[in-house]
Amino acid sequence: MAELYFNDRRVDGRKTTELRTIHCEFLPGLADGSVLLQQGNTKVTASVFGPHPCNVKADEVPDEVCITCQYNRPPFVNTSGSRQKHTHSDKVAAEYAMTIEEVFSALIRGSIYPTAQIDIFIEVLQSDGSEFSTAINAASLALVAAGIEMIGFAVASTVGFYGSRLFADLCRYEENSRVTRVTVACLFGSPDSDANALTGDFAPSLPPAALPQHLFGARLLHTRLSSWLPSEKLISLIRGGVEVAKVIHSELSEKLRRYVKLSERM
């Protein structure tokens, strides 16, 4: 375990549960809400357009809103400088886009925007681990900046087990090593929400219905597991992810409060 953990430090000098620095910038422009979010060296922009009339008439649903997501991750965004094959990068991007649509379709109050469409555009500028969780966090911030009404503010984190140690907010090197990881998307402080469904990939021995829907005051919206884990260890890993997401939620909430106060002065 020496290459990933030595002298009580991880490869980037952090302690096991230490998060990377989070920077957030709300961007002006043509989008209704746009955010540049940086977690460590991972940089993602999220832009929200809408609500507006559906581009395709067949997508209109009474009392519901159509959520679309485009997720762009160029093959050269890794901090290692290595280039991925387009087919692999495109497949991952399509999976991420579909999940973001599912998560925020459950959170946005569709009855307020009947027959309308809201578009989320994700652009990965640099990927150094925890990319997908950073993208979810950026999308949440952009939706709030756009004034979209939701039942709650979704926050995601990526954590992993290396041996018996839980690593929080994984960097790229840790994700590419022997670290079993999970990305969790959570909803905090909204017990009356109707986002009941869990989505994602689970250990074969543990069906989704067996997972607790509430952990430490959070509702699980999505989990994405990198490889199989025994049930007990999986639950422990998800609990760790929720605790890390709670810390990220606190940081992002404070950044949102500052943004709102600044907007009120303008």
UniProtKB/TrEMBL annotation:
Protein's name in the database: RNase_PH domain-containing protein
UniProt-listed Pfam families: RNase_PH
Family under the similarity heading: Belongs to the RNase PH family.
Organism: Taenia asiatica
Domain Exoribonuclease phosphorolytic residues, every copy: 18-149
GO biological process, one term: nuclear mRNA surveillance
Gene Ontology molecular function: RNA binding
GO CC annotations, alphabetized: cytoplasmic exosome (RNase complex); nuclear exosome (RNase complex); nucleolus
InterPro entries, sorted: ExoRNase_PH_dom1 (IPR001247), ExoRNase_PH_dom2_sf (IPR036345), PNPase/RNase_PH_dom_sf (IPR027408), Ribosomal_Su5_D2-typ_SF (IPR020568), RNase_PH (IPR050080)
